[in-house]
């Protein structure tokens, strides 16, 4: 999808946000990302995500009353803040149980920063997700920000470790940018654990567009976790 | 600021979003990030940023009518979309002139994904910014996502190149994670161009919290740019 097609899709209401592709046939193994719900906070977050994209697509030349829009949004924020738990309570709630996170900035259905990327396990022990990114993720003209590619890949390598059965925290990550990564086109993000040697885990991944590799990642992870808050 | 202090600040309305610190004494040189405006789209984006944080802080247990909130947000999105330029028009507008970008996901005042990080040039040719991150940027419990650190550093290294006078695109980026990077505390993000050898630019940077280095970055950039759309 080029910029013009993206524009038409937005006007028809079909792709004002990063668009997850249909899931491939599932493979047996742990669930890799939280299942988005059509109601509750996930619904409001999905709407917030559409809003973030719409603001960037609109810019300052539309004549829309942005001060009034800001006031409307702040009214919603005020209502949410009034009813919110304290941050320590919320952290404890977020990290309860052993399931996948719902809050993270890559796959999290409760995080409007997340495109979101939906990752699936494959039979060869690698994982994969397809995502189309819009203007919020732009770096160079019409292309994905290099740091956004790093964000997607760091997270995907972490999830690939989970899929392979030995997780850890990132110790070192090397990204190589082979060609610009396009906005408005489906990107395939993959990850695969290569080796576990004592506490050292090596994992690789890449982002491809139209079958061509745009960015590769090599990660070294160490097999430890921060304690979950209680 | 720990999680409890962050919570109190949010309730008093003072820090529901990433909080840029006061600017240090300016040093002569090119402006490094766009100046945020208090009206226009920047005001609506700042409100959207507060909303993204409030949704994550609220979660699903507040009893707020999230379906109604989603409908309110979609009404705003609908109005913006109606008045928006086409994507090709918007891209041309975004990239007009030679100034700093307003759209990027790290410093951009028009991008609700950006914390935003405000960067300043220093006399030793390095650059620096201070930012406090909230729940949208969480990876491990109570800490910054490793990919978010990569995003901040990739961008900061690029801006350090601009400050030094020779810019380029990221070819390779290596991140080393020395200790977990805390949420809710001021983080100092720095970048410095180390060398220019033909078209190859080497640049380094780091994120510190309370004077201790959390993440380092080494980047190789090549002195070329993608064409700006017209």
TrEMBL record, chains A, B:
Keyword Nucleotide-binding: no
Lineage top rank: taxon: Bacteria
The species this protein was found in: Streptomyces lienomycini
Keywords assigned by UniProt, alphabetized: Apoptosis, Cell membrane, Cell projection, Cytoplasm, Fatty acid metabolism, Hydrolase, Lipid metabolism, Membrane, Transit peptide
Region (Disordered): 1-34
Ranges of residues in domain Thioesterase: 142-212
Family statement drawn from the similarity comment of this UniProt entry: Belongs to the THEM4/THEM5 thioesterase family.
Subcellular locations according to the entry: Cell projection, Ruffle membrane; Cytoplasm; Membrane
GO MF term list: hydrolase activity
All copies of domain RHA1-ro05818 N-terminal helical, residue ranges: 32-89
Residue stretches of biased makeup (Low complexity): 11-20
UniProt name for this protein: Acyl-coenzyme A thioesterase THEM4
Primary location recorded for the protein, binned into one broad class: membrane
Segments of skewed composition (Basic and acidic residues): 1-10
